[in-house]
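Final report, closing paragraph on structural work. Over the funding period we assembled a curated collection of sequence-structure pairs, and we close with a single example.
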Amino acid sequence: MRASNELGPCPRPFKSARYLVLWFTMGLLLVAFLLRVDRVVARVFHVDEYISMLAAQMTAVKGVPVLPSGILYPQGLLTSYLAAPFVWLSSGVQEELLRWPSLLVGMFTVASYYVVARRLFASRAAGFFAMAFAALDMPMILWSSRVRMYALAGLFVLWVLYFAVRGVVYFPRWSAWLAAAVCFLGAAISHSVIVIAVPIWGLAILVTMGLRGERPSAEGMRAGLRQNGPAWVAIIVVMLIALAFGVIGQEAFLTPEQGSGDTPLFDFSALIGKFLSPGVSWQRVDDFVYYFTSEVYAPLALLAIVAALMALVAVVRKRSTPHQLATLCLAFMFLFTIAGLGFLVTSTWRKTRYLFILCQPAFMLLAADGLARLGALAGSWLRVCSRWLSDVGALIGVALIVVVWGSCTWNGLGTRGTGDYDTAFAWVKEQWREGDRVMTVHPSAAYLYLGHVDYYAAGERARVLYDEESEETVDRYVGATLVDSAEALNRVLAESAGHLWFVVDRKRLFHRYDPLFTQQVFAQMDVVHCSSGVLVFLNHRYPRPVPVQPTADIFARFDDLVELEGYSVDLEAMTPDSSVPLVLYWRPLTADVPRPFKVFVQLRNGQDEIVTQADHYIFEGLLSGDVLRDLIGQKEWLRDGVQLTIPNSLPWGRYWLLVGLYDEVTGERVPVRADTSGENAVVLTWFDLL
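Its predicted structure, as stored:
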């Protein structure tokens, strides 16, 4: 028998690894999908989602996102049109359904990270790592589950980076630049903050071209125009349209007509002032640095630094490749954007959430590249050259990302919202009676769930326009009358014949308004419903504003917690329900109050018997250390309104008012320094009833 030289069938490890890679990729996409669905149904809302929902609703009804106030809402224009069909599919406001466009965009973004990283860095491992980071990144999950424009803008920016870097490093052709310009237009229609990136990224591209050894010349530019003139004209036109939409359209919404006829139709210097405000200080950039060096992003920041340093060393040693230049170009874009946001633009654009659009894509790509470089370095040390072993190594890296870096994402699974503006306004709607009015800090949410809103409680940061018909300043979203001061609030409460509802979240109640406004709310309204962090107030039947300053001085110190320095009471101003308004003027001494203390106010007769008593927590128990700290820093009164009900048939004689603090759990009173009452209390005043 002659031995055969033919080899029998042998295992095909690469084919097995290829299927493993395919299933692993599908599994990662499934994980990304489930994480985003979990957030979609969690009913945890970003406060601005209601604005986008209203814009989508108006787009579905009118064909364009013209708000009830009559002005166009250009921010997130594409998001409004993408969500409009889902409005048609729903009856009423179906928040989860309106979130699906963002979810689908988010899924496409996760897949896009693989494609972009795979092609820019010529590394399958980098593609896997980028996709894993995108799938598990919590901000990406959150923005992919909200009715906002951030997920869509982030997707367009990712592809802008891809085509721009490809045009600089790999294929300097007009087609790449045209694709980048079209994606830039999509980003500008999604969110106007992208216009800030034009000069910044342009500088990064020029620096990268310099490292590549290219020196742009007038002759070369003329030759390019002669060869591909129409294409470059198209690129310029697309960029100008994007800039015009991002700057002029957004500026018109950010600063709508205020009723002054003296302002020019187009003030270029004022327009520039809306964007540029140069200044150099650590305080302008520290939030951005802390964002990317936080506990969650610190590992990715280290990987990004590794990628940038390895690429820089290669270029310095004259070993530059398209991969090295692509990494450096992304690093320049990232660093220059951080610097530009911190040192060049106004506070309007200097917000950490804009990092998600402008910086997050480059950051994630650099981190993926850094991890892939470390993996390749380890493979070279181990002398691993097999492609299938490299794929398996990449999958092990992805598994580590999922288990280790993604742990904080897994910890947030299953959390559910317990209420927000949606449930708060739904409760108000159930209690609604003819003649009622509503005031809120969030007119868009009120319009969505109630169908109208009467007053916009704006505080110091009003988003308003001038209504020529009513000659009033109204909010730009639904046209509700502006209430921007404590005096305006007092007028509205005084004019209210029926119920006046005030719906506001706790954060804005204490941080958006000045202290006097907030204290007037608590003095003349009661908290009647709480929907998680959103409060519903209802006006008193006979509201009385608290005086700005006390009408009588007194001094009493309650331990080291607070001082009582005055009060206001008018015993002649009894309301028809037999209550007398009393205002106590406190000076907080510390924000570190060990536990909440209750205030008691007692009216006693000449026999030291309690005739009537009013016990309450200041601000209905919502007083926090942060609020106390703000009051101390502002040297502002803590005005505490009390409604003291007086019995109808009080006998003649002498009466006196007594005030103190006590722990409701133990009943123990807070000690009063130099107490003269003998019971850790303060005698406010004596009066004779004749």
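The domain at 552-689 is CATH 2.60.40.2550 (Immunoglobulin-like). Confidence is low (pLDDT under 50) at residues 1-15, 257-263, 466-470. We thank the funder for supporting this effort.
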